Structure formats: C-alpha cells, structure tokens
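Service request form, structural biology core

Requester: graduate student, group of Dr. S.
Request type: structure prediction, single chain
Budget code: on file
Notes: please return the result as structure tokens.

Sequence provided:
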Amino acid sequence: MALARVCAYEAGLRMFPVTTQKTATVLIVEDDGEMRSLLCDEFLSAGYRLREAKDGDEALKAVLQSEPDLILTDLRMPAGGAEYIGRLHSLAPHCPIIVMTAFGDAGLRAKVLQAGANAYFDKPVRISALKLKVEELLADGA
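Core staff response, request fulfilled:
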C-alpha cells in the first residue's frame, strides 16, 4: 500500500506516492517554497514521514500539535532566529533540531547551538551530509 505526502502550499494540494516508510517523522521548516519542496522530496524518497511549515510561527504550532522525531529548519525566515530555536527546544526538549542558514557566522553558530540546536549547516547544504546527520541524530535518540 502506497503512502502519500500532502503539501498544501503554493499551487494547492500535491500527492506523492511512496512505497517505503521509516518510523521517524521529520518537520521541515523553510520559507523558500522551492527549497522546502526539494528537502521534502529528498526525505520522502528516503522513507521518512514528513510535516512542513513555511515559517517559525507555523513550526511552533506544528510542534504544539504533535512533536516530531526531528526538526530540520531554516534560521533566517519570518519568526526565525536564535530565539526561535530556543522556543522550539523548550517546546520539544528531546527532539533533535538541525539548523540551516545562508547568513551565518561563528558567533551565530555558537548562539544557535547554545539555544538548543543539535547541528548547524551553512547553505548551500550538501543533501547527503544532511541525510547522514538526520540518521545519526535519530539513531542517538532510539
């Protein structure tokens, strides 16, 4: 039986059939629709269950509804930033958080990790490295 991902952004609903599934749910938070779609496609094809949010406020609401197994989030977006990472961490203290940003430096990296992120990637991100980190963090939590 095939599973489907429903994406309610941009051009309405899209359904993608999938034949494999891992037990982990990943929340992908990205304000750039194309980047969010790329990340969703990559992690969906790897077999993860997905939830999506287009900004920090939507991500916080999604976590309040149901805590995911891992959060993969952009940093510089509406309602984003290091304080947003701290709020995510306080709502889901046992949920690994991976941060991606194109506008970071060593000081921001330290601040984000101190706020509760488990990993930090500068954009452009190598998808293979991102997938390895997701697998590593999920395995550590198992």
